[in-house]
UniProtKB/TrEMBL annotation:
Highest rank taxon of the organism: Eukaryota
Family annotation (SUPFAM superfamilies): NAD(P)-binding Rossmann-fold domains (SSF51735)
Organism: Didymosphaeria variabile
The protein's name: NAD(P)-binding protein
Segments for region (Disordered): 1-22
Length: 97
């Protein structure tokens, strides 16, 4: 998920997490598997890791509340790729997002 104060097209140019004006949210199942994503979030304060279960509506509501708190209820882009990694995206490191 990406929240931006800008009107740039959402998926063009440099990775959105490199711009500190963008708030990037990574929804993951477990911090135990965060690995390099956790390291990247430590360096880029605009990356937020939210642990949730996308198959549980209650957990998704909780995740949405966490995102809303940071973005004041605004979200520009939502990319859902859970279970859909393919040959073109499976090899991308978190820094490519």
């Amino acid at each position: 998920m990406v929240h931006s104060d800008k009107q740039d097209p959402p998926l063009t140019g440099a990775p959105k997490s490199t711009d500190p004006n963008n708030q990037v949210f990574a929804l993951i199942r477990s911090m135990g598997t965060a690995g390099s994503l956790e390291e990247l979030a430590a360096r880029r304060k605009n990356i937020h890791i939210v642990v949730t279960d996308i198959s549980d509506p209650t957990k998704l509501d909780e995740a949405a509340a966490k995102v809303s708190k940071v973005t004041a209820g605004s979200l520009d882009v939502l990319i859902l790729n859970a279970g859909s990694a393919g040959p073109d995206t499976a090899v991308l490191p978190p820094s490519a997002l």
